[in-house]
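Residues and backbone
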Amino acid sequence: MTAAIRVAIVDDHPVLREGTAALLAAQPGLEIAGVADSVDAAEALVASTPVDVVLLDIRLGSDSGLRWLTQGSPDTPARSDGLDHPRPAIVVLTSYDYPQYAEAALRLGASGFVLKTAPIAELLDAIRRAAAGGLAFGVRPARSGPLTRLSGRELDVVRLVVDGHSNDEIAARLGIGTKTVESHLRRLFERFDLASRTELATRALREGWLEVPPGG
């Protein structure tokens, strides 16, 4: 039996925080690990209990949820806070429908960006994608580079990487061999000077690769 996804909610509005927790607790496959109203309280929660996905508001009183993302972004050193479980994936859940906020969240390592006005199905999809290692952005990040034309097969591979699928899962879904998937990824890494699947997924979302028709 698949373990439930443990979710924490970080929001300074009690009604929204507790309402979201109650709504998610009723969903199959999800479990509420805790709630917090500030970055410091969220840090304490994550340090004391395993959490798979954090739903993080941007505005937390006079503080910003982006501060926590900055502290845990790939460009900052890993914390030595005694955690004996992995750092959770973070999905920004906000009222601010701004591409520049989505861009900042993506750049700082968030796994998703969802509006509070989004349907519950979109939020659940973002939580499950983030827990699986994928990315889910209901608001498209601001484009920061030229759009890239890829072949149809390359787009298929990139799309499944963004969704968090392993090489074996991608191969099974596309009906090709795992070695072929690895070859596609190796060529993409070399072409765009990338070091990891995470960098590939981040750049694809940032530059809107999946929104461009495949090249010849």
The first strand starts at residue 5 and ends at 10.
